[in-house]
Amino acid sequence: MNRMAPYFLVAYCLLAGCTSTGDKLAGNEKKLFTLMPADSTQVFFSNTLTEGLNTNVLLYEYFYNGAGVGIADLNGDGLEDIYFTGNMVPDKLYLNKGNLKFEDITEAANIKNRTPLWRTGVTIADVNGDGKPDIYVSYSGKTRGQNRIHQLFINKGNDANGIPRFEDEAEQYGLADSSYTTQTFFFDYDRDGDLDMLALNHNPDNLPILDEASTANLLAQSHRSIGIRLYKNEDNHFTDITEKTGISSSVLTYGLGAAIADIDGDGWLDIYIANDYNVPDYLYINNQNGTFTDKIATALGHITKSSMGNNIADYNNDGLLDICVLDMLPEDNHRQKVLLASDNYEKFDLNVRTGFHYQYMRNMLHLNNGDGTFSEIGQLAGISNTDWSWAPLFADFDNDGWKDLYVTNGYTRDFTDMDFLKYKNSEVQSKGRLNREQVLEILKQMPASNVTNYMYKNDRQLGFINVGAAWGLDVPSNSNGAAYADLDNDGDLDLVVNNINREAFIYRNEANKEPGNHYLQVKLKGAGKNTDGLGAKITLYRKGQLQFQEQMPARGYQSTVSPILHFGLGEEDVVDSLRVVWLSGKEQVLRDVKANQLITLDENEATGTWKPQTPPKPLMQEVKPPFVYQHASADLNDFKRQPLLINPLSFNGPCLVKGDVNGDGLDDIYAGGGNGQPAMLLVQQPNGNFVHKPQPAFEADKNSEDASAIFFDADGNGTLDLYVASGGYHNYLPNDPLLQDRLYLNDGKGNFVRKADALPEMLVSKGCVRASDINGDGHIDLFVGGRVIPGRYPETPQSYILINDGKGKFTDQTNMVAPSLNNIGMVSDAAWLDLNGDKKEDLVLVGEWMPVTVFINTGNKLENKTSDYFTKEYSGWWNKLYTGDFNKDGKIDLVIGNMGLNTQCKVSDEEPADMYYKDFDNNGAVDPIFCFYIQGKSYPYVTRDELLDQVSLMRGRFVDYKSYADASLEQVFLEEELKDAKKLSANYLATAYFESGADGKFVEKPLPLQAQYSPVFAIASFDYDNDGNEDLLLCGNINQARLRFGKFDANYGVLLKNEGNGNFTYVGQQQSGLSLRGDVRSIVRLGNTLLFGINQQPLKAYKWKNLCTGL
After folding, report:
1. What is the pLDDT of residues 457-479, one digit of tens each?
2. Alpha carbon distance 557, 65 (integer Å)
3. What's this model's pTM, rounded to 2 decimal places?
4. How far are the Cα atoms of 406, 459, 621, 948 from residue 452, in angstroms, in the given order?
5. Which secondary structure element, helix H or strand E, spans residue 1025, and what is its range?
6. Which residues pair with 294 in a beta bridge?
7. Exposed, middle or buried by CB within 10 Å (0-12, 13-18, 19+), for 895?
């Protein structure tokens, strides 16, 4: 998607050296930031709010949304000044006097607020193009329109004392608007050389309860004061052109954040709008003709639910712009438990049907894949939970060459507290319509969320480390707008934060005091009326690595950061080259730029012309599948049957397997059926096409779910027969006859008949079937893994060893061959391979809440010898097992698909996840209680409402949310109740590569982090580049997920290049060409084509350039 992407770069590259100041300061040696006292800075501003009968959060929910900060050099003295907006107090302008000393010049500068309230965001930009920064102040609040008229303070230059003077000329410029505005953004959307303006507006009233018809009606209603507005600059007069642009401006607008950037890299500025409540965000891509198209549904798999501040920046130094949007999920267990109710699937599904997209309550970090898609990895990156959050600021605060992330948060009165809502509803029901005095009394019962802001250090591996306390940012507050700038010109970025009911924070950055801590600052001088070069792109190159920034000071939340672009360089004291691409298309390159200086780049000196790079031809290309196959859709919700499942269990198809069923030397395909859809047999023709060969036996069994299948010669006649393992969950009962497996015998011509007496009764839902001659009698036997007992999760189903009599009749000999396999666990996959070189195949199996398990074949028994092959238990939520010799040492290695690391649940040996289960309330149903560690202590994940619904005896035990909020499992249940409860544990959730070592034990080797984006359910290997090494392809996702977890959709097909010796590197989506959406559950290779079975979707096919030999 981004045509400026440096295709040759590795995602984790370092511009700086191996060590950094940030590494040194992240410990206990020294704080990176010092909070400057107001007596020292002379900045005494406090955004003080006064609650009253007409001014409180119950009458206006955005009462505590706070105000902004603007930073710029307003008088041209080389020192950056600060502007604070106040909701109920006058704005303040502070002139920087040097050495972090400021002077209040509000009155002297002629800054006069129009009315006492309600100011929100501040944007500083050279609106009229005269070279002097102007100030635009937005207004909102539940007040009359005449009190909400915005102000544009035009900079008239300095007086004799060097004080900048301003005049409010909003009316003359056509910007004396009275919309409910969070903030405005100035940018040149049409590239005509002047700055246009976007007004980020919002509805002052709460979102009403909507159905599909009323939602469609409201979305069609444009509203000038509520909806987003776009103004075109026509010779310093702004004209509203919104209706012509394709931008939604309806009454269903709750804009709290906007970010302007060239997201797709085509040279034109795009817009990301963050909407509060359940109203969806918008990703508006500039069509280069004055219109925009919303691409949110195709670019982002899911979005935040209550979107607040946002930011767009390249945080991983790959030259692509990533998107961060904040929400309000707390980090700690207590806050989560007092805020969260039960999952509401009906409301969620309604929102999806009405076009509101998939929304979940947590911060999100959308990593740009460079091909028009983004992978949301906020949980993997460690930044998903920062409570009620406002401003996300990406900047290199420790000068190590990598952007860190600062997040402000807090809400003075938390009206989402469940106990408060319960209390408020009780008061309303008992007293009827309340007067304002009674409302104010209710308000006093509302709790506060006084929390600390977050600072995350970039770990250079797609993630962040919380260093707030270590860096000295640990003062509790309710903070909103924030901005950064080098206020004291010492080469590092200081912080300014606007707080509610306390003085603003000014943090002095001490990074400059560390030796070997270099930087480069860039000031832009644009041509024409875009004097700050808004939209210009600056790329620094050093030793084949890069840093990338785009000039857009209005960012974060209601605020404007310094227009001087700051680059940390770590130990590097010279930049090989610096390239700036101006929005006009002009380009200039500087070489051998020395560090530790501020340089000014002038667009008038640019002589080059930027040309978009032509992306290289991708390694794989989507092609038309060789046959038509659509996996059956299923309108199921497994969480309606068992609300406390971890993941859904009804969406594991389709299974695809290949084999030559008619002896013509060509591979044919079995495509599994279920949910009323018969399976299909696709017979390959000499020309490579496939013909569907109907099978009455498959039609008869269409109500069974095909979980796994295998072609093998069951009856010894030399033709491939077919075993199909029955699975599924939602539509089936325990011991359901439809769960019986099936053996279909082949007449040699591809005609299959079900053998009625071939199998014993096997009425559990299966996970896999795998074939081997277990007893060495020359006949193929089977292991069949039990996956789940429908409706009884996580009780252990039976697994089976089926011994073949040579004629296609199988008997259950599990008790004789491997008694411990009977109830080994919830098996998802298995493989037969000779681990000890005795010419007998051994069994490796994996499953949910199971360790990777090894059974060695002794000839007549299978014995659990896991400890002989693994140094510890690797217990996970395993989905797929794949084998191969990836380091070419002659030994079989294992690649095992797991949950991945992009999830709320974090586990380790010391802090595993646990699942306790029994029928706690004796109502005949299994009660699964999932627990994992949060901040060092294990808690049940279940909310209070879910617990009370699941276990009726809890209703009298936890009468409110607060009493449950800190309860561990042992405090939820009595000792006697837990005495006979069963327990499962998981200490490892990463998708794993285990290499067979010289001593025969499997050794864990790391895979690229992209392997952990999403659950992996399908794996393939092939040598796409003909270098003699088998490369890996990992696919998966879970789109029917539990709502609190949110759907897992970040995997678009992860291709890993084998560098030899079993070391893998990630091949980016733009380079691989893979863009697989949905839940991939099976992969079949035909020559140099891969077929992908995707749950409830049509078959997909991709082909790579070179035909490689081998399977």
Report:
1. 999 999 999 999 999 999 999 99
2. 10
3. 0.96
4. 11, 21, 48, 32
5. none
6. 284
7. buried
